[in-house]
Design brief:
heterodimer; A: mainly beta; five-stranded mixed sheet; four-stranded antiparallel sheet; globular; B: mainly beta
Chain lengths: 112, 116
Amino acid sequence: DAKTTQPTSMDCAEGRAANLPCNHSTISGNEYVYWYRQIHSQGPQYIIHGLKNNETNEMASLIITEDRKSSTLILPHATLRDTAVYYCILPPEETSGSRLTFGEGTQLTVNP
Amino acid sequence: DGGITQSPKYLFRKEGQNVTLSCEQNLNHDAMYWYRQDPGQGLRLIYYSQIVNDFQKGDIAEGYSVSREKKESFPLTVTSAQKNPTAFYLCASSLDRGRFDGTEAFFGQGTRLTVV
């Protein structure tokens, strides 16, 4: 399985950009990178995904390095409601479909 | 509104009793999943189903059972064989168009099971 590595925790000031890194050095050529977040005691919420190109939606931007070995999720103007655990995920190789394996993620705390 | 619904939100059971957690989706998704989450930890896959009447074990299936008789429903039974059943249980669904076709999973709000 392709593995991801994320920092355990990060802090960010309200209104500033939050940049959450993820290393996935063993990613294969056709694997997507997914990002989800989980606010305390709720179900995870999909944020964004990408393959090779950078992606942007109403929630965040995803920057993937050219060699695809790492990516960064950017929340351009973090708010207190963005405090959550953020998961960087790659589907395992041996299965089809969207079977997702969640690690421990990064606890992002947005401070006032 | 389309979505995925888990019920109940909180559930209490006595040790030794089986308990069934409900998960229903009206998103017309083929794939459904059950995860378990313990405090301060990530999600661990219990079972998943990619089509009606078929399901596969995940990473921690022992002590659990599922059924998939309808596309919309994927109930999870926590049996008395599960040694430490107290946890937060999450159900999810997705279109399952294949691993190389990026597709998102939708999660329910979870059921917090406490066994006393």
